[in-house]
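Dear colleague,

Thank you for sharing your sequence with our group. We've completed the structure prediction you requested, and as agreed, I am returning the results in plain text so they can be pasted directly into your records. Please verify that the sequence below matches your submission; if there's any discrepancy, let me know and we will rerun it promptly.
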Amino acid sequence: MYEDVNGNGLYEVGIDTPLANVDVVITDSAATSYTVATDASGYFSQVVVPGATIVDVDTTDPQMPAGVVLTDNTFGQGSDPSVVTVPDGGVGTDNTGYVGLVNPRRPAR
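Please find the predicted structure tokens below.
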């Protein structure tokens, strides 16, 4: 999870800012829910059963920056909640980006 500093909808190391200590609710295909927090690099993980898994950022978490909205979804990184397909014995990946209400690519409203 990250703040998309340049608003292009894609995480870029050295440009964008990882969001640490934000809760993410993961609900696996067996309907078991887990709440995990992002680490200093904005990453989170949870072992789940294979299948469709829902990843939902807790935007009410006090560690979530104020005044951010989802980034552009052109690269699939601007939706929340999102569904990740976790293969048997494999790993699913979800990147979720947020932008400030005013940034170079999103005019003030």
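Summary note from our side: The chain has no helices and eight strands.

Kind regards,
the structure core
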